[in-house]
Amino acid sequence: xxxxxxxxxxxxxxxxxxxxxxxVGNDPHRMLDILLSVxxxxxxxxxxxxxLIADRTGLSRIAVEGVASFYAFLSQTPKGRVTIRLxxxxxxxxxxxxxxxxxxxxxxxxxxxxxxxxxxISLDYTACIGMCDQAPAAMVNDVVLTKxxxxxxxxxxxxxxxxxRPEDLISDHFANxxxxxxxxxxxxxxxxxxxxxxxxxxxxxxxxxxxxTMTPDQIIGQIEASGLRGCGGAGFPTGRKWRIAAxxxxxxxxxxxxxxxxxxxTFKDRVLLTERPHLLIEGMTIAARxxxxxxxxxxLRGEYVYLRALIEETLEDRRNxxxxxxxxxxxxxxxxxxxxxMGAGAYICGEEGALxxxxxxxxxxxxxxxxxxxxxxxxxxxxxxxxxxxxxNAARVLDQGAQWFxxxxxxxxxxxxxxxxxxxxxxxxxxxxxxGLSVRDLLVMAGAEDAAAxxxxxxxxxxxxxxxxxxxxxxxxxxxxxxVVVFNGQRNILEIVEYYMSFFVHESCGYCTPCRVxxxxxxxxxxxxxxxxxxxxxxxxxxxxxxxxxxxxxxxLGTTSPNPILSTLxxxxxxxxxxxxxxxDRIRASFDIQSAIDSAxxxxxxxxxxxxxxxxx
Length: 617
Description:
Layout: H1 11-23, H2 31-42, H3 47-57, H4 61-68, E1 82-87, H5 90-94, H6 97-108, E2 121-126, E3 138-140, E4 143-145, H7 150-161, H8 179-186, E5 191-193, H9 206-211, H10 216-226, H11 238-247, E6 254-259, H12 268-275, H13 277-291, E7 295-300, H14 308-320, E8 337-342, H15 352-359, E9 383-387, H16 388-400, H17 402-406, E10 416-423, E11 429-434, H18 439-445, E12 451-456, E13 462-465, E14 483-488, H19 493-507, H20 513-531, H21 536-552, H22 556-560, H23 563-571, H24 573-577, H25 593-596, H26 598-604
Parallel strand pairs: 1-2, 5-11, 6-7, 6-9, 7-8, 10-14
Antiparallel strand pairs: 1-3, 3-4, 10-11, 12-13, 12-14
Helix pairs in contact: 1-2, 1-3, 3-4, 6-7, 10-11, 10-13, 13-16, 19-20, 20-21, 21-23
Family: Belongs to the complex I 51 kDa subunit family.
EC number: 1.12.1.2
Cofactor: FMN; [4Fe-4S] cluster
């Protein structure tokens, strides 16, 4: 029998791939859609498939392979008919994932990274899937399973081996459930506190109806007057971004919703997508009215594929009600529609330039700035990129008025904020609260009075200790995209930091050397501290290398990846001091440069011109 990795496509597979390409007009900008569909149908992206796709889309084979090799959910080796992806973030580990992994491996008779001999089931790790409030969690094809235990893992394997489909693990009548019921059967919302703006009662069209009575300039003026800032963490003024796009010289403009919240510990947008999808689409439509856009893209992270049917239903419902599509609400010339773009497992695509590249059918690599997306983004067109929470806020501002929103929060941070609280607490979940809340007050609400450390903003944010719990959330103090991860006194700070650094090493797009190689060096150095092999000079080394990575990296991943180290060095100095040994002649103990860059060589798929002596041979 011909090996699976070298076999040629069957005639039916050739026809199937051709139909997939035809469905998107053989458009190379829809490459990610094509490859995801091929992966779903064929369970891998075969060499012959890449050549066929290249021929159909007018690209080179290497261009197609560049996309296929970039995303974690695409495979160039055959996968099982069912792929189990076990979430391997630090919260899942602390919640018992190692024991769950062992149960899956025992039941399947394979290790993580392998496929059963009959080709039925593959077992893999994946990064944070946005279920930190109900860990341990996993994806089984397009189905999400939460609160796993070893016994439940064995039951899942037995059911799959007995012929059940992944969706049968949720309900025997899965197909008869509404898309919303399917979503909530899989994942709990865990809304612990609903605030006045986003999670309380409200209309799904009032903001749009008000916007239709205003000029585009007046709409933007309302957003500016509200003080609304981007809710993904950077906090750029939303109205200013919209005005830049509106004023850019162009005949065509684009609205993109960034629903790719991949930051470990963040899951707020997941809840909005489930409970407020109409509010999101309304916000995007208002933005289109404000800047003169006719086209929108909703980029949904691959880990949230279980929400795809719900979002598609919402889009179709709004089209049928005249709230989306041609001549919205009977207004000639106001045409705007949205297509859903699925991601494929790449944290870097949460960065707006990388997200735009992904929408264009390219590897998710950040773009050089300037020009900024509002001037020259998707396909070189003026593009507004905001996240789910921001668009939902914008719809509420147009519904209730700018002053209503402005009066909530603080002088620099207006409105409410969705906090995703997880980790060592009694009440993990979503809390919508006004800006200005103290960390301590949120911890009390979440039942985390014994917290010893809190990661504000997730892996790329700030780790604070007990003596800083009176600091307040907001752009004037502790800014965050939403993640609040709680660790009690039994957790090893350096273990957490090492995990975060391994996450950044894995998720780097590999484009620029400081991020690609520097983070490997940082991870290795933290490993030295954990092993008790560090000396005092290693602390300076961590600070110096972190500064270099921040100053010279191309995008936000590299400029924030050293944060776990820098913030813990500042706020938990005794943790590092306790692991340091005196040095002899200022020589760093057991540091092997060749070992340190092995991971970087593997990621970059090339050797080093500096450290490989035989490079020129």
